[in-house]
């Protein structure tokens, strides 16, 4: 069976799948609640709102750049299930810190002196948490799944992740911030309980000494991983994809508020549509490829993504703001340009999901099982470096006063680079088959 939904009934997959769902849900419940509350309730300037959104994105991404090499070493040379349990236990403390920050901001207590710093500390710590969990969620799949199940398992994890992002984002936009503060703590506790059911996944190769020098180990890890041209090109293409995604996510809240004159519920709706689209694309590409790991559809997918981004930009340009105030969801949907806008956004996400899922499967199937976590970690280092640069660029563009709407053109242009990298990967794939 190509789409191996039967895996959802197996302990070798189900606890990991649920743990990842809860992880993605909690990440996005916290991040979205924090950003929407600050953008809509604390700041009142497009420049300040865009800058805060970009800085928050950079703070979350930075740990991936700093600690991915160590995370990859640990995941390949220690029991992956044990690391998951440790990481999920730490999440409880992190979310208690973030929850306190949200409550203080809600109560308007020392907002700039205490609440926002606490929110940022928790956000950085969640980035560290995700850095150590990230390599495992993909690297453990070839260890617990049969070879013909890996692509389907990757697609299910990716689709499930975006469904979880969907629910986390919906809740963040619709529930009070104090409820979000309680929700992130409860979810962290549930995540730890489920993580304890993940089957053991001991190291499959020789246990080597850990290198704690993050600069040296990061350079060595990326260099050692890049010897296979297909893996190198997949990492580069994924990096540009997530840079595009980071810039888009940074733009959504301030763009919804200042360009579309829409409420925070509408900003949440944008993230929801994006999550649904990536989930659809993730499952669809597996059906098209029939379980075969291939970059066959990647170049066309990301070109289509760029065209949808351009369409999204044109609709935003033509949008006539409402002079009476912020539109709620029914008022927004009733706007004559709303349907074209949401269809463009859905198209961006579907094409993006079809582009990126086979590339992740490349990273776990074309390297020895003893190196899969380090390969994912090397990918995370390059991805996070590119995303931090994207965040800094978005921050700089906001600082010099460039309208947030014109940032969309940057995302569209980056799709061309991703398409070129996808084409090079496809050629390398075909060359290796000769």
Describe the structure concisely for a colleague:
The protein is mainly α.
Q: How many individual domains?
A: 1
Helix content: over 70%
The description of the largest β-sheet is: none
Q: Distance N terminus to C terminus?
A: 28 Å
The strand count comes to 0
Q: How do the helices and strands follow one another from N- to C-terminus?
A: HHHHHHHHHHHHHHH
Q: Could you name the CATH homologous superfamily?
A: MFS general substrate transporter like domains
Percent strand: under 5%
Number of discrete helical segments: 15
Which second-level CATH architecture applies? Up-down Bundle
Report the top-level CATH class.
Mainly Alpha
- CATH topology, what is it called? Growth Hormone, Chain: A
Mean pLDDT: 81
- Shape, principal axes of CA atoms: globular
Could you tell me the radius of gyration in angstroms? 21 Å
Q: SS-based structural class?
A: mainly alpha
Ranges where pLDDT stays below 50 over 5 or more residues in a row are: none
Question: How is the secondary structure organized here?
Answer:
Blueprint: H1 14-42, H2 46-77, H3 80-106, H4 111-139, H5 141-144, H6 150-174, H7 177-195, H8 214-225, H9 229-258, H10 264-289, H11 298-318, H12 329-334, H13 338-365, H14 372-399, H15 407-433
Walk me through this protein's architecture.
- The protein is mostly helical and 434 residues long.
- It has helices spanning 14-42, 46-77, 80-106, 111-139, 141-144, 150-174, 177-195, 214-225, 229-258, 264-289, 298-318, 329-334, 338-365, 372-399, 407-433.
- It is globular, with a radius of gyration of 21 Å.
């Amino acid at each position: 069976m190509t789409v191996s939904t039967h895996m959802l009934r197996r302990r070798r997959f189900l606890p990991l799948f649920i743990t990842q769902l809860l992880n993605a849900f909690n990440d996005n419940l916290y991040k979205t609640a924090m950003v929407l509350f600050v953008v809509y309730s604390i700041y009142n300037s497009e420049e300040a709102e865009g800058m805060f959104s970009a800085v928050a994105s950079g703070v979350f991404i930075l740990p991936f750049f700093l600690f991915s090499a160590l995370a990859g070493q640990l995941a390949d040379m220690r029991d992956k299930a044990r690391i998951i349990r440790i990481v999920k236990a730490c999440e409880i403390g992190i979310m208690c810190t973030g929850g306190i920050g949200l409550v203080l901001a809600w109560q308007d207590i020392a907002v700039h002196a205490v609440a926002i710093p606490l929110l940022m500390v928790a956000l950085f710590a969640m980035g560290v948490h995700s850095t150590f969990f990230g390599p495992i969620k993909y690297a453990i799949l070839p260890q617990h799944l049969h070879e013909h199940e890996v692509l389907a398992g990757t697609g299910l994890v990716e689709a499930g992740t975006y469904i979880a992002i969907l629910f986390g984002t919906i809740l963040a936009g619709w529930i009070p911030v104090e409820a979000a503060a309680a929700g992130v703590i409860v979810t962290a506790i549930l995540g730890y309980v489920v993580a304890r059911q993940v089957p053991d996944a001991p190291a499959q190769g020789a246990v080597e000494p850990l290198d704690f020098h993050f600069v040296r180990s990061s350079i060595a890890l990326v260099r050692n991983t890049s010897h296979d041209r297909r893996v190198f090109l997949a990492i580069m293409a994924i990096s540009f994809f997530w840079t595009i995604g980071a810039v888009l996510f940074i733009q959504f809240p301030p763009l919804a508020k200042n360009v579309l004159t829409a409420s925070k519920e509408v900003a949440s709706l944008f993230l929801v549509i994006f999550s649904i689209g990536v989930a659809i694309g993730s499952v669809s590409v597996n059906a098209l490829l029939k379980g075969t790991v291939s970059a066959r559809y990647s170049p066309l997918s990301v070109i289509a993504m760029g065209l949808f981004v351009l369409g999204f930009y044109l609709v935003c340009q033509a949008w006539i703001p409402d002079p009476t105030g912020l539109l709620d969801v029914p008022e927004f949907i009733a706007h004559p340009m709303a349907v074209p806008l949401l269809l463009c956004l859905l198209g961006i996400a579907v094409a993006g999901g079809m582009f990126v899922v086979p590339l992740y499967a490349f990273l776990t199937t074309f390297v020895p099982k003893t190196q899969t976590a380090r390969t994912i970690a090397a990918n995370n280092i390059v991805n996070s470096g590119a995303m931090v640069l994207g965040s800094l660029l978005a921050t700089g563009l906001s600082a010099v006063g460039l309208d947030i709407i014109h940032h969309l053109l940057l995302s569209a242009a980056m799709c061309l680079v991703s398409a070129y990298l996808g084409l090079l990967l496809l050629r390398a794939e075909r060359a290796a088959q000769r």
